[in-house]
Design brief:
- The structure is a single chain.
- This protein is α+β, with helices and mostly antiparallel strands and 123 residues long.
- The chain is built from 1 helix and 5 strands.
- The chain has a domain of 45 residues.
- The protein has a 5-stranded antiparallel beta sheet with strand order 1-5-4-3-2, with no helix packed on it.
- It is globular.
- The two termini are 31 Å apart.
- The N terminus is likely disordered.
- InterPro entries: PRPF17, WD40/YVTN_repeat-like_dom_sf, WD40_repeat_dom_sf, WD40_rpt.
- This is Pre-mRNA-processing factor 17.
- One of its GO terms (molecular function) is mRNA binding.
Length: 123
């Protein structure tokens, strides 16, 4: 009765929530919401400037956060990295020390949309 025992190294994904993966117009959940596309892309482009220009700190101004906005909960251990999902402005990707990668809805629900497992160690 070794039921539900995962094969080490097997890759799986788990969809979270009741929202469908495609909206009523046939758009994938990965596509940026049309009303936020331009605004969010400008914000992400500005944030990417900081990442790409790491050597030029003199011209950048950083500020301490003024208030707590949100806590993302879902990893069972620490988080190694957080990045915007490539070419979108509404999804975050997190790599956890629990061996999972999670994609979060940053714009709408601020919840985990999908979890990928398969790493035996931290990502």
């Amino acid at each position: 009765a070794e039921k539900d025992k995962k094969d080490p190294g097997s890759t799986t994904s788990q969809w979270h929530g009741s929202k469908p993966k495609v909206d009523y117009q046939g758009r994938s959940w990965i596509e940026c919401p049309p009303q936020q596309t331009k605004k969010q892309q400008r914000i992400q482009a500005r944030q990417m400037e900081y990442i790409e220009d790491e050597d030029d700190y003199r011209n950048k101004t950083c500020y301490l956060p003024k208030k707590w906005i949100h806590t993302w909960e879902g990893h069972t251990q620490g988080v190694q990295a957080i990045r915007f999902f490539p070419k979108t402005a509404h999804l975050l990707m997190s790599a956890g020390l629990d061996g999972t990668v999670k994609i979060w809805d940053y714009y709408n629900t601020r919840s985990c949309r999908i979890t990928y497992t398969g790493h035996e160690k931290g990502v």
